[in-house]
Specification:
five-stranded mixed β-sheet, Aspartate Aminotransferase, domain 2, binds ligand PLI, single chain, 2 domains, Aspartate Aminotransferase, domain 1, three-stranded antiparallel β-sheet
């Protein structure tokens, strides 16, 4: 062997490749461990084949959710020490309000303990019994709060969103004809607001385009209907606009975010995702009357209107988190890591929702386990099987998550039957992604042996959190 050939070449030297990398380095670590397989089997059975019921100490790589599971920066941890824990008028609250105003552009802010606290307030404030709320695909807690307020959610997302193989670049878009048809059918006075999510969680983390939100706003304005935004993962949505929408390639994430929000009347936010904190949320509006109503309600359900269930230190970490989350290099690395995992799986022919979204990889359980009928919960089964294989925890996003129709009591049968592998922000490395991908591949290779589940316990609300199953 020649001297030259014995020197291993890096991929970069070979292909002239330039990789992205995270714009941070690791200062503190939290040990994790992989239980032996017999213990994983026992843990899964004891958890009723529901990954929500596992103890986190029994999980190796935790991809259950990106909600509240991100790593805070040294600046945010330093910010915790700046907490002003006054019951009323905390300094951190005013900083948070100014930060949301600066980056999202809304006028009035009501703090809440997390996203569903804000969903509760906006739903109760705007929805009357018998109203209809159109939206770009349901989200579990969002729709439930709309229903509890007396409304009916109507899905007006484009058809492509329900097809995991369709490569539409903006599968989160609203179908304007579906929206118009609803307005014609029920009348604009029965539609308190259009519920727009950026990116769409249940569709696979798919974005909505700037052109679409502009068009939605124009249509809504014609009828005097409000547009409210679920801003939970808007940074990632802004990234996809920058990447895919002509005219936005040279705009910053911060500029895109602000422009997008300018086409809406307000927003609710689970700060546990894109705002890089472990707990927190907020409601924002440009409407004074809505602000007055929700600011009054927050003291009943969440806490005083200058903390809404958060500690002063939480609000400080949240304000700092917003400033970090709008950085272009951060969002690029964030989506880049999700894409890295998705591309490994795609290369092995494993069926996932395409295009790869912003916060998670969604395995298509219908194509993974085609022999398991939807009534035997293929996605629930797959999430359990992955945990048993490696200790990697994902979650079901299919028939169990969709729940029952409150009028008929029947299962809702979503077209998408998925397992979500959600990547926490700034937590895991590329090596963790390799381990995850290899575990999915191992389960894929044994897919023909899989057996479905039967549900043996079903709670009334948001059943996916607490339902229990047995192996068929
Ligand atoms: O979990 P909350 O209450 O902070 O936020 C509720 C919520 C609202 N909208 C969207 C799009 C969400 O994704 C969301 C929560 N999502 C969770 C917990 C998740 O695992 O995706």
């Amino acid at each position: 062997m020649s001297e030259e050939r014995s020197i291993p070449q890096t991929m970069g030297q070979q292909f002239g490749r330039r990789s992205w990398a995270e714009p941070w380095k690791i200062k503190m670590v939290e040990p994790i461990r992989q239980l032996p397989r017999p213990e994983r089997e026992r843990a899964m059975a004891e958890a009723g084949y529901n990954t929500f019921l596992l103890r986190s100490a029994d999980v190796y790589i935790d991809l259950l959710t990106d909600s509240g599971t991100g790593a805070m920066s040294d600046r945010q941890w330093a910010g915790l020490m700046m907490g002003d824990e006054a019951y009323a008028g905390s300094r951190n609250f005013y900083r948070l309000v100014e930060t949301i105003q600066a980056y999202y552009g809304y006028k009035y802010i009501v703090p809440t303990h997390q996203g569903r606290g804000a969903e509760h307030l906006i739903s109760q404030a705007l929805i009357q019994q018998g109203d209809f709320i159109p939206g770009n695909m349901y989200f579990t807690t969002t729709r439930l709060h709309q229903e509890l307020a007396g409304g009916t959610f109507v899905d007006v997302i484009i058809d492509e969103a329900h097809d995991p193989t369709d490569l539409h670049p903006f599968k989160g878009n609203i179908d304007l004809e579906k929206l118009q048809a609803l307005i014609d059918r029920v009348g604009p006075e029965r539609i308190p607001y259009i519920s727009v999510a950026g990116t769409v969680n249940m569709a696979g983390g798919q974005p909505i385009s700037m052109a679409n939100i502009k068009a939605v706003k124009a249509l809504a304005d014609r009828y005097g209907i409000r547009v409210y935004l679920d801003a939970t993962r808007m940074m990632e949505n802004a990234f996809f606009i920058q990447e895919r929408e002509p005219g936005y390639e040279d705009k910053s994430i911060a500029d895109i975010l602000k422009e997008f929000c300018s086409y809406t009347d307000g927003a609710w936010m689970s700060a546990k995702k894109d705002n890089l904190v472990n707990i927190g949320g907020w409601l924002a509006t440009n409407e004074e009357a809505v602000f007055e109503r929700t600011r009054n309600m927050v003291v009943v359900y969440e806490g005083l209107h200058t903390y809404g269930g958060m500690a002063g230190r939480d609000m400080e970490a949240l304000a700092i988190g917003i400033t970090e989350a709008v950085q272009d290099d951060y969002v690029r690395a964030r989506v880049g890591q999700v894409r890295y995992l998705g591309e490994l799986l795609t290369d092995w022919g494993i069926p996932i929702v395409q295009p790869i979204g912003g916060h998670a990889i969604f395995l298509d359980a219908k194509r993974f386990y085609p022999h398991i009928p939807q009534d035997e919960f293929p996605a629930q089964t797959l999430a359990a099987d992955i945990y048993i294989d490696s200790g990697v925890r994902g979650m079901e996003r299919g028939i169990v998550s969709a729940g029952r129709n409150p009028e008929t009591g029947e299962h809702r049968r979503p077209k998408l039957e998925l397992v979500r592998l959600t990547i926490p922000r700034r937590v895991y490395t590329q090596a963790h992604m390799d381990v995850v991908a290899e575990s999915i591949k191992a389960v894929w290779d044994k897919r023909h042996d899989a057996r479905g589940l039967k549900m043996v316990y079903e709670p009334k609300y948001l059943r996916f959190f607490q339902a229990r199953f047995e192996r068929l």
